[in-house]
Amino acid sequence: MTTMNRRLRLLVAVIALALFVSACSFWNWLDDGTAIAQTTQTTYPIVDSGQEVTYDNASDGSPEAGSGASQSSNSPVLGSTYGVQDAFASRQDEDFILFAPLAGEEAYLIDRSGEVIHDWNLSGPPGNSVYLLEGGDLLATYTVEGDFHGGGIGGGVERLTWNGERVWSFELATENAHLHHDIEILPNGNVLMISWEAMRGPEVRAAGLMASQLPASGQVWSEMILEYDPSIDQIVWEWHLWDHRLPSGWEAAEHPEKIDLDLAASQKTEDWWHLNAVDYNAELDQIVLSSRMASEIWMIDHALTTVEAVGDAGDLLYRFGNPSMHGGSGMQIFYGQHDAEWLGWPVSGGAGSTRILLFDNGDTRERPYSRVVELALPNYASSSTGVFPEPQIIWEYPHEERGDAAFFADHISGAQRLEDGDTLICIGTEGRFLEVTPEGTIVWEYVNPFTGIGPGGKPSNEVFRCEAYSAEHVGQDLAR
Hints:
- There is one protein chain.
- By secondary structure, the protein is mainly beta.
- Helices cover 9% and strands 32% of the residues.
- It is built from five helices and 27 strands.
- It has helices at residues 2-26, 201-206, 261-264, 306-310, 471-474; strands at residues 83-86, 96-101, 106-110, 116-121, 130-132, 138-143, 155-160, 166-171, 177-185, 191-199, 220-229, 234-240, 275-281, 286-291, 296-301, 318-320, 338-342, 355-360, 371-376, 392-397, 414-417, 423-427, 432-436, 442-447, 452-453, 459-460, 463-469.
- Strands 1-24-23-22-21 form a five-stranded antiparallel β-sheet, with no helix packed on it. The chain has a four-stranded antiparallel β-sheet with strand order 4-3-2-27. Strands 5-6-7-8 form a four-stranded antiparallel β-sheet, with no helix packed on it.
- The protein is globular.
């Protein structure tokens, strides 16, 4: 009997060891079966279209001799092919790409061959955007623990020199407010920030919301836009969404400039609007915001004082994307979009200030593919007829007739118009960057090889957004 017990224990131990080895082998695979390499490399060779090459995931990323496996340049497989995929026709050879993997605590500046030119250590995981200031300083968000827990959470903003020294930092992570997602540097050096603002008991009851409309916590996360002046370490301007809610008894369709809480109350979480982008237009002195939950873009007036912004003058100047959010008719155009930004360089004539570029994520049920959209805006103003004029979609990728489920990122992601008219796209869920021409031709492609542990304890190479910068903008000695 004792011998049988020993044999049984030995058998159990062998089975446990086999399961452990299998688990370790599986660790580097995502739930859809695509591997992600665990690597610390900083140089990634170009993989030309059609070249037969694979990478040894356990090595430094150099081509594995004699593998003979062909990798498609237009359909990269994470962990098998990473770094630069295509560079056969790029017209942006001199610029650099900045990004911060969401599962790490670093920001990287790479050149078009995929080599890391510079990196910075952040004060925490990105929360979520990073930007390179003229002259080489980094403006970065980072995560701060607090009472809020949601997608895109941040809490801190810092400015770092090229050498990584902190110039200043600002944190807002309290029980009542928490920074999240995005920031925007203003011409005067101030910084616009997005923050949740918790609305509880008295505020919720005063707004006429019923308990049945609220999540289990009984609170709603409203939104506010804050302008921070680092020279005096103070908030110098504010805009609060809650100030612009539709009054009880008003018809939403007649007042699209107001935000209808009843229409937003269908959200099952506290985060009813989930703003994920803020961008500033100096010519108009206006701010564009992107609301993922509403599937809309909003414009607000920055020319107002904080006091003026509380009143009707601070209502939405314009909104577009999902008419059902203000009782309107017509089709929903956007689904969970990200990275709405004013264009500095339009593809064809017209003022850049009248155009918006965004990443329209899509929805698994309603429209299971993503697209990048350029909008030409009308001369908008609050309308007494309850109708905002629609913008014109003048460019999209993939082109409408080629809407493709393979081009699909259901969250994060973004796009940037380059100076020559090409567009840099971040497919954030894949950590994949594309440069496409106005005609839709891919001329450069890169897959982020830096992985960390993401949601659910699985390896992730996700990137919130990437940004391109010229050598002149960087202003540093980039000699290798």
